[in-house]
Amino acid sequence: MDRLAPMRLYTLSKRHFVLVFVVFFICFGITVFIGIAGPKIIDESTFSGSKLMMSNNTSKTGPFQLKSPPLSTYNQQLWLTCLIQLIQVDSMDFHKEFDMSVEIKGIMQDASVMHIHDNVYNRSRLLHCGAICEEIIVVHLGYLNYTQYQINVNFEKLQTRKYEIKEVHFTWKTYNPSFSQVEIWFRFVFVVFTFMVTCLFAHSLRKFSMRDWGIEQKWMSVLLPLLLLYNDPFFPLSFLMNSWFPGMLDDLFQAIFLCALLLFWVCVYHGIRVQGERKCLTFYMPKLFIVGLLWLSAVTLGIWQTVNELHDPTYQFKVDTGNFQGMKVFFLIVVSLYILYLIFLIVRACSELKNMPYIDLRLKFLTALTFVVLVISIAILYLRFGAKVLQDNFVSELSTNYQNSAEFLSFYGLLNFYLYTLAFVYSPSKNARYDSELKDNPAFSMLNDSDDEVIYGSDYEEMPLQNGRAIKASTKYEDETDSD
């Protein structure tokens, strides 16, 4: 049987476990409160279409001539949306397909106007109205090459006999420069903290051979460097260069880390039951296949959107791609398979290993902390998207519905503090040594003690497990010697 490098998890008492969770919630709460007090993510400027008409034009459908507010690299991206207001005689749902033509020009610092592309973009859009009409994204620029933009918009086939257009409202949306500065500082702080935690974790395991590390410790040595990429140390490049590359790099790092976290969960809950050599073909390949499909679909859609937007800023995969619904169904099917597989592994691990004191403790802690993180994540998603979370926003992208920095910063804080907590409990303590009785094998158990006595030391609650057991054993031996 292989010896297992000790974990700080085994030496924690009940009050220490409570303290770990309290510190986790305090750190997460501080992040949320800073976000609530922080600036709005999106700056908006709304104009009435009737005031943007080109000369000698009385049509409610354009053409409209719009000029964006002055921009800097701290604005990051630019959206132009429109909201059509109808004179309705009833509140029935109304669908109308119409054509939209868009011409985009860039304004230089010397006020000279540059045509971004020679052609005019023509797109079909679907107008959906109930009590009010849904907002339509006209243009999205993923990075800014100019200090100002001039966009000419014209709608065709929009007028109907039953519903008359009352007004068309256009809204410019950009990132708030104050939020961009907050984002830079928060990412920098998390990068520094993650680097320190990674170094401390690696330093704590230096005395132990890698083959004696537990599966959680091996995975933490992979997840912590990926968390460093998730926080994106290259993020400031997006403010130093006008290019799509920093944004795509950030999306790629996030997809890699999140899929590695999904792989970590299924591997740990399965691997803690499988001792000895875990074969790549039978153990890792099925998990890599499921998680790999999730990663591939997310990255494909992200690259697909970015590449098409470079050639056509009016492009939207949700509107202009016939295969989007098929990709969405495929993604949800794979997610469902992953959830069912993970639940199966958790139930089986808990049922088979519930009487194994040390391994049972590892399962309980990981399950409890992961459950807390998932509940908070679902709550944040629901607050952000509402009941439409699986309808219109299945691809992770920044929505312009953010009201403040709290929802954005909470995701970064949650995942960072989750990994920091796991790194703390899975790292060996300063004076940790091998205990010959501690094996990474579910067949091993302490038959002479109850679970509470083994884990918490009964009357020796403050003592580490190994020392507490050794003291009790030596006391018992001395009593037998005296009686003889």
Map the helices and strands:
Blueprint: H1 14-37, E1 42-48, E2 64-67, E3 78-87, E4 94-107, E5 113-115, E6 121-129, E7 136-141, E8 148-156, E9 164-175, H2 177-204, H3 215-230, H4 237-240, H5 245-271, H6 280-311, H7 317-320, H8 324-353, H9 357-385, H10 406-426, H11 451-456, H12 465-483
Antiparallel strand pairs: 1-9, 2-8, 3-7, 3-9, 4-5, 4-6, 4-8
Helix pairs in contact: 1-10, 2-3, 2-10, 3-5, 3-10, 5-6, 5-8, 6-8, 8-9, 9-10
Short note summarizing the structure:
By secondary structure, the protein is of the alpha+beta class.
Would you give an account of this structure?
By secondary structure, this protein is of the alpha+beta class. The chain is built from twelve helices and nine strands. It has helices at residues 14-37, 177-204, 215-230, 237-240, 245-271, 280-311, 317-320, 324-353, 357-385, 406-426, 451-456, 465-483; strands at 42-48, 64-67, 78-87, 94-107, 113-115, 121-129, 136-141, 148-156, 164-175. Strands 2, 4, 5, 6 and 8 form a five-stranded antiparallel beta sheet that branches. It has a four-stranded antiparallel beta sheet with strand order 1-9-3-7. Helix 2 (177-204) runs parallel beside helix 10 and helix 6 runs antiparallel to helix 8. The two termini are 36 Å apart. Residues 387-401 and 434-478 have low confidence and may be disordered.
Bin the strand percentage. Answer: 15-25%
Question: Major sheet, described briefly?
Answer: 5 strands, antiparallel
What's the β-strand tally? 9
Following the backbone from N to C, one meets helices and strands in this order, namely HEEEEEEEEEHHHHHHHHHHH
Structural class: alpha+beta
Number of helical segments? 12
Average pLDDT score: 77
Separation of termini?
A: 36 Å
Which range best describes the helical content: under 10%, 10-25%, 25-40%, 40-55%, 55-70% or over 70%? 40-55%
The Rg value, from CA coordinates, equals 29 Å
Oligomer: single chain
Shape descriptor reads elongated
The unreliable regions are 387-401, 434-478
